[in-house]
Specification:
mainly alpha; 10 strands; about 55% helix; about 0% strand; disordered N terminus
């Protein structure tokens, strides 16, 4: 215990009183003991020394207090506890006295020492508040409280300080630095101790921090304050308290409106907002109503500010704001809709940052999947913006190509989801048809991108020779690589015994059906007409057409595929004998498709395993011929006579020189593989000519001839030669005897291996099998030669004789030579039982994990490559299931799953009865395969696995199964080039399901019947078939549907579905469910049910047709005959979100009305510039000064930008108009204004109020002739002003009886026209009465005649279909009534399509090939002054309009698309007659010409 606590218990009260009086009075009658502090010591010292002494004493007393509090937490006796309490009380009194003395000293401090004193105070205060990393909770909480108190003292000292001036700038910066440092320390405490966050009250933190968000502090201080508030939030309740204060909203809106110079502040604001969204989001109580799943605690003003930042393309925080809005959209779509964020995000979807478009599309597809949220979208207008980059690509420049490519990827991902596909199939597939119709647009670049999109969308991987087809070259000239191709065919052919369709194939089948119904084949056929000779684009279209036809034949039912295969457009062209061009195009396309299919079968490697090669194939005949030639050649070589043999031997040059570069390699190889196979010739080569000796010497390691050759592609032939030589030696007894007794080859190999043994004496400095030599020279070939010897029984005996296998065993223990171990395992042959298998088993049980992994991989490849699996290989593979490394176990399980696709191998593995309980989730798929056999099911049932797993699947694993399938589909359609490890366990086929595997055996069906799980599944499906709100029930419904589908996919499980009559319920869900993802699940489930013949027959009765293979067996693919009933979701009425932000009482003063009106007009881009100049001039005039310093007007401005959509620069301009500093005082006034000016929802504006407010500015004044007038335009008018009550506004927020440019119209539903814009009012007016009323006058001519003159229509005008009842532009042009013409004359004018003549000057003719569209000048087209802007308007809105096109066909296509009548003016061909002077004197019969000379 500290010495200062050793105070007698009886003297404690007197000591306390004495000490207290000493501290307070500064003197004491009693003598102070040594070391006791007294305030008398401060006398005669300057301010800095006094503060230093007081702070040191304050630190000491606080440490005493903390020690006493720690002692009280311990088990103490009564006397000691009383003594500690006394000491604690004394310390608290001293702390209070010292604190008061510090305040007294601060009041008397010199003014010039303000900065230094504050700095010294902060340094001493830091000594108090600095905490160690090992501090406890109480200490951290106390330090946090002290830091909050310090922030409060900074606020009070700054508020009571002098007015800032140039001389006090340094002091304010020092104060900012102190505030930032204090907040940083507090944040460090909150980050280290999460418990402190819960103990601190958010109200206290806000009270201490909010003052530092004011404008008088620096941006760094404001950023630190936002950061501190963010670290204080711990739960939804704290965010709710933060949101209730509403004081923070003003600071956040102001910070988000700042420019990029305040990026450090805006960054912390956005982080705070994201934290509020993440922590404070609460679940929505009323889930039945429209809206998201939660409620985000973000106010509408803040949302408007975020939207403004997201719309600003130059803002560095644009992307994060868009992401934040997207997250809020998924949680609380109602909030985003109220603030106008949906329109902004949809605009970003069509023309936003390319990197965020996939994120936005995924978010909107999630919204479409729920009926509760998709009501905020309008079909045909909103989500279709994602297609705009493609559908509106005509006429765009080269820069638009990248945009189209990104848009095509997004569109591809959207069409690969159920939500996107069903949404775009609405309204008779109008969106998909628009995409397909873009192929008809004559723009090469865009169409090539769209063709590539369809290739990727349908998951078509063009073969490597497709470029040859597109280039127009003959495919018969293209040959596949025999080395890689044949090996790939053998490898892939052995993987799977039959062709299995995947989930992606089933979805693509529906895509093919939808696209062909939308006119894809017709559009591709139309592209073929563009060129008779064919271009790369038309050939690419032909390639896509051929792929679609082949895919339709593979994945669609025969009745549907036959309609696609007909391609009537191509056949019509081919049989059009009267039109030669069409016939050439049709026959060329059919020939190209036929050539493509024939050569595809020849060149494309097949993945279907067959038991025997095709006897009628072209390659089979070639192979037979090659084998016959080789056999005849070999027989002739073996029957070679002596003279020929000697000459061939000498021809190899082996006997003449040791230089291997001079040997004839081809002759040498033929000699080894031919004559030496004859035992007599082998004996002669060994004993007589010593040819074999010289050749084997070349391969000896220590001769450094073969072993030193560099490892290159050309030198690998010597490795093959060595293997051939050893094979030839093994075929004769003399060769085996020579290799075992006379030659040093194997002996030197063993010695070379011994060089690597660390226990075999001093190692060689440069061993033969060093890492460098194996990697860079042909030394690796020795391992292949040893592998060649292991193929023969005699070779294994030789390897045993020379103890090569012993060297292998020693090498397997070398950690640093994994390259040799892998090479040995790869090259050894394991067909003969013996040491090679022991070497492999030793590698499988190596002490190094990477060796075991490699050996397991090699073992799996051996089993996969063999025709029949051997028992010993399966036993070794099963042994790897017990490996200590999980990676090895997982790899072994992966191979076993693949091998168990073969029923014979599965039965063999089940008979071995491996124990796999220790594998957990890794061995679960393999155990499911065991369940499919009666023996395996009985084995697992006896082990208790079935009962345990059945309960687990019923409660949990069904949900996990749904997640696994849906995640795979997302990844499979994501077009990622990187291979995902998660896809290894799920190759795309329907994953194994517990209930599906159980239904494959009789015992499994019996147990399933006894448990009653299927009955519960049926009841759940019937009860929750229409579920669309609860996500948990939706997920459970999907899991049960998958379980039912897997049970129905078996012969034994289908009776369960028939007994419960569940198939009609599944079909009803597939066609009537409001959730697209549930419909998609039913689509896959029905495909599973159709995988049996009986299930396909049942579905055929309900008009769902299954795909059959050539043998008539179902493939597991099923599509509806009436697919539109399946792919079209019910339409809905769009919901308009109600804005909760209340209205305010309009201003009464004329000047205030003018300012507010100008601020409102800033939202109109047409008159925004004029309004901004008007506001700037108003601000400069003295009579408006009180408006721009009024908190009430500032609140009105903030309310306007919080309820309307303004761009970020305009918001910044509006806030900067007011000369007000944002601080606590102003915030309180703004909150009072919010209370006073807020009106009741039932409040209605009076007639005088509505007459004063106009979107075009204050009324009663003459219209300004120019937006750049001088200041006199703000002067009051000199003419008589009509009272406000008598003025009629042009457009008001109330129902009106007259609109400029129209006759008097009696509005029938005046109450519905409130808050209506000009365009909406005109649209409603013209929709109902104007277009059909005879009282509406047409545009007249500016001539004296009353009857307008009309021009005679041209006879060759091509009429178009009549347009629908749409709003025409002339209705709202503002044209006065006297000069209006009949609307029909303007709407039915013909356009002229012509080719302009060449310039008569000496200009070139580069652009003379282009075609144009123009309109003749309308006779009598009068002009008038536009009432809105004062522009000179004309009755002919097409005058001067001229469009240019690349060809006549492009111009005609555009005119037809626009619905215009047109006529084509043929171009005038310039004819230059021949000029010859002699022609004047040529005799011509007839009357003589009279040549007049005068």
């Amino acid at each position: 215990m500290p010495s200062h606590l050793n105070v007698p218990a009886g003297s404690a009260p007197s000591a306390t009183a004495s000490t207290s009086s000493t501290l307070v009075n500064g003197a004491s009658s009693n003598a102070e003991p040594p070391g006791v502090f007294s305030f008398a010591e401060l006398e005669g010292k300057d301010f800095n020394e006094q503060m230093e002494i007081l702070n040191n004493q304050l630190v000491l007393q606080q440490r005493i207090k903390e020690g006493a509090e720690n002692f009280l937490n311990m088990d103490l006796n009564e006397s000691l506890r009383l003594q500690v309490k006394t000491e604690l009380e004394m310390a608290e009194n001293k702390i209070g006295a010292i604190t008061r003395q510090i305040e007294v000293v601060n009041k008397n401090k010199p003014k010039q020492s303000n900065g230094a004193t504050s700095r010294r105070m902060l340094q001493q205060d830091n000594k108090v508040k600095d905490v160690d990393k090992g501090e406890d909770f109480r200490t951290a909480l106390q330090n946090a409280s002290n830091l909050l108190s310090s922030l409060g003292s900074f606020t009070s000292s700054y508020a009571t300080g002098p007015v800032p001036s140039s001389s006090s700038t340094s002091n304010s910066s020092e104060t900012d630095h102190q505030v930032i440092e204090t907040m940083s320390k507090l944040i460090d405490i909150l980050r280290r101790s999460l418990r402190v966050r819960y103990e601190l009250k958010i109200a206290e933190v806000l009270h201490a921090v909010l003052p530092f968000l004011g404008d008088k502090y620096s941006k760094q201080a404001r950023a630190a304050a936002y950061r501190l508030i963010r670290h204080t939030l711990v739960d939804a309740e704290s965010v709710k308290l933060l949101d209730e204060s509403r004081s923070l909203d003003y600071y956040i809106v102001k910070s988000l409106n700042r420019d990029n110079k305040h990026s450090v502040e805006k960054e912390q604001v956005i982080k705070l907002i994201r934290t509020m969204v993440e922590i404070g989001t609460m679940k929505r109580e009323n889930m039945a109503s429209a809206g998201g799943t939660g409620v985000v605690p973000i106010s509408e003003p803040i949302m408007r500010a975020i939207i403004a930042v997201a719309e600003q393309s130059e803002d560095p925080f644009r992307l994060i704001c868009i992401e934040t809005l997207t997250e809020i959209l998924l949680i609380d779509i109602d909030l985003v809709s109220r603030t106008g964020g949906i329109g902004m995000l949809l605009h970003m979807l069509g023309d936003g940052p390319v990197e965020l478009v996939p994120l936005l599309s995924a978010a909107f597809l999630h919204i479409v999947d729920s009926p509760r949220t998709r009501v905020y979208l309008q079909v045909g207008r909103d989500l279709e913006l994602a297609l705009s980059a493609i559908t509106d690509a005509y006429g765009k420049g080269v820069d638009h190509v990248d945009r189209m490519k990104s848009c095509s990827k997004v569109l591809q991902s959207m069409l690969r989801t159920w939500s996107g596909l069903m949404y775009f199939c609405m309204d008779d597939m109008r969106a998909i048809r628009s995409i397909v119709d873009t192929l008809r647009i004559p723009s090469l670049d865009s169409r090539e991108i769209i063709l590539d999109m369809f290739f990727d969308l349908l998951n078509i991987r063009p073969p490597e020779w497709h470029q040859t087809f597109i280039d127009g070259r003959r495919l018969t000239m293209y040959q596949k690589s025999r080395d890689a191709g044949d090996a790939r065919v053998e490898l892939e052919g052995s993987e799977r015994g039959y062709q299995t369709f995947k989930l992606t194939d089933q979805y693509i089948a529906l895509l093919v059906l939808v696209l062909t119904h939308a006119g894809l084949c017709e559009a591709l056929s139309g592209m073929l007409e563009e060129s008779i000779n064919g271009t790369s684009l038309t050939r690419k279209a032909t390639l896509l057409l051929a792929e679609v036809l082949q895919m339709g034949n593979r994945v669609l039912p025969l009745s549907i595929a036959a309609k696609i295969q007909a391609i009537p457009e191509v056949f019509d062209k081919a049989t059009h004998y009267s039109d030669g061009e069409h016939r050439i195009i049709g026959t060329t396309a059919m020939s190209a498709i036929d050539s493509f299919n024939r050569n595809r079968a020849r060149l494309q490697p097949s993945t279907v395993r067959t038991n025997r090669p095709r006897a009628n194939s072209v390659e089979d005949a070639v192979r037979r011929g090659q084998r016959q030639v080789e056999q005849v050649k070999l027989k002739m070589n073996m029957q070679m006579d002596d003279k020929t043999f000697q000459s061939s031997l000498l021809e190899t040059q082996v006997m003449l020189t040791k230089d291997s570069s001079k040997w004839h390699f081809e002759t040498l190889q033929e000699f080894i593989e031919g004559p030496l196979l004859n035992p007599k010739r082998m004996e002669e080569a060994i004993k007589v000519s010593r040819f074999v000796r010289r050749l084997m010497t070349f391969f000896h390691p220590f001769s450094h001839r073969f072993s030193d050759m560099p490892r290159s592609k050309s030198n690998t032939r010597w490795v093959r030669l060595g293997c051939s030589l050893l094979s030839t030696l093994m075929t004769s007894a003399d060769g085996v005897r020579y290799l075992g007794t006379e030659d040093q080859f194997l002996l030197q190999i063993v010695k070379s291996f011994a060089q690597l043994d660390p226990f075999n004496g001093v190692p060689d400095s440069d061993p033969i099998f060093s890492k460098k030599r194996v990697a860079d020279t042909l030394t690796y070939g020795y391992l292949e030669m040893l592998g060649t010897l292991s193929k023969y029984k005699e070779g294994i005996e030789l390897l045993e004789k020379f103890k090569v296998f012993t060297a292998f065993y020693h090498l397997s223990e070398l950690r640093s030579r994994e390259d040799l171990i892998k090479g040995i395992i790869e090259n050894l042959d394991y067909s003969i039982d013996g040491h090679p298998r022991i070497v492999l088993s030793k590698a499988l049980t190596s002490s190094y994990k990477h060796i075991r992994l490699f050996a397991t991989q090699h073992l799996g490849d051996l089993i996969r490559g063999s025709a029949n699996a051997n028992a010993w290989t399966l036993r070794l593979l099963l042994t790897q299931l017990y490996d200590p490394a999980p990676e090895v176990c997982e790899l072994a399980v992966h191979f076993l799953e693949e091998l168990c696709e073969d029923k014979d191998i599965l039965q063999l593995v089940v008979e071995m009865q491996p124990t796999m309980d220790h594998l957990g989730e890794i061995g679960h798929p393999l155990l499911l395969k065991f369940m499919s056999t009666p023996m395996g099911f009985r084995y697992l049932y006896d082990a208790g696995y079935i009962d345990r797993e059945m309960d687990m699947w019923f409660n949990e694993r069904n949900i996990y199964y749904v997640v696994q399938v849906e995640v795979f589909l997302v990844k499979a359609f994501a077009n990622t080039s990187d291979e995902d490890e998660d896809l290894l366990a799920f190759d795309g086929t329907v994953p194994l399901h517990f209930y599906g595997e159980m239904a494959k055996t009789e015992l499994g069906c019996q147990i399933l019947q006894e448990k009653g799980h299927f009955t519960e599944f049926s009841q759940f499906i019937r009860k929750h078939s229409d579920e669309s709100e609860d996500m948990e029930l939706i997920m459970k419904l999907k899991s049960i549907l998958w379980a039912v589908g897997n049970v129905g996919a078996t012969e034994g499980g289908l009776p369960f579905l028939e007994e419960e009559e569940i198939i009609p319920s599944v079909l009803a869900i597939a066609e009537k469910s409001p959730v697209p993802s549930i419909r998609g699940t039913c689509f896959f489930v029905l495909g599973l049910i159709s995988s049996t013949s009986q299930g396909a027959e049942i579905l055929d009765d309900y008009n769902w047709e299954a795909t059959l293979d050539p043998l008539g067996m179902p493939t597991g693919l099923c599509v509806p005959v009436d697919f539109q009933a399946f792919t079209t979701i019910p339409s809905w009425s769009p919901v308009v979100a109600n804005r909760t932000l209340g209205r305010v009482i309009p201003p009464a003063a004329e000047a205030e009305i003018e300012v507010i009106t100008a601020i409102q007009n800033l939202a109109n881009t047409v008159i925004a510039n004029a309004s901004s100049r008007s506001l700037a001039k108003m601000k400069s005039r003295p009579e408006y000064h009180h408006i721009f310093t009024s908190p009430t007007m500032f609140y009105r401005a903030l309310n306007i930008i919080s309820t309307q959509q303004y761009r970020l620069p305009i918001r910044r301009f509006i806030v900067d108009l007011f000369n007000l500093e944002l601080n606590q005082e102003l915030v309180q006034k703004l909150k009072q204004c919010a209370t006073v000016l807020r009106v009741h929802p039932s409040y209605k504006l009076t007639a005088s109020d509505t007459s004063r407010l106009s979107m075009f500015g204050p009324l009663g004044r003459p219209r300004r002739t120019s937006i750049s007038d001088e200041e006199d335009e703000l002067d009051p008018p000199t003419t008589n002003v009509v009272p406000a009550e008598a003025q009629a506004p042009v457009i008001t927020l109330q129902p009106v009886h007259k609109v400029v440019g129209f006759e008097a119209i009696a509005w029938k539903e005046s109450e519905q026209l409130a808050a209506m814009s000009l365009l909406q009012a005109c649209r409603l007016a013209t929709r109902g009465s104007i277009l059909r009323s005879p009282a509406v006058l047409g545009r007249g001519l500016a001539t004296d005649s009353a009857t307008p003159t009309t021009t005679e229509a041209k006879k060759d005008i091509t009429p178009t279909q009549p347009a629908r009842d749409v709003l025409v532009a002339d209705v709202i042009s503002g044209a006065p009534l006297p000069i209006m013409r009949p609307l029909a004359e303007l709407r039915h004018r013909a356009v002229r399509i012509y080719q302009p003549t060449r310039n008569t000057m000496q200009s070139g003719g580069a652009k003379s090939e282009r075609w144009r569209i123009d309109w003749d000048i309308l006779q009598g087209g009068g002009r008038w002054e536009n009432p809105l802007m004062g522009y000179a308007s004309s009755a002919d809105y097409m005058q001067g309009t001229r469009m240019s096109f690349r060809s006549k066909e492009d111009a005609i296509h555009f005119a037809e698309k626009q619905g215009w009548d047109y006529y084509v003016q043929p171009p005038t061909v310039k004819r230059i007659p021949p000029k010859n002077y002699a022609e004047n004197y040529v005799y011509r019969p007839g009357k003589l010409r009279i040549m007049k000379t005068k």
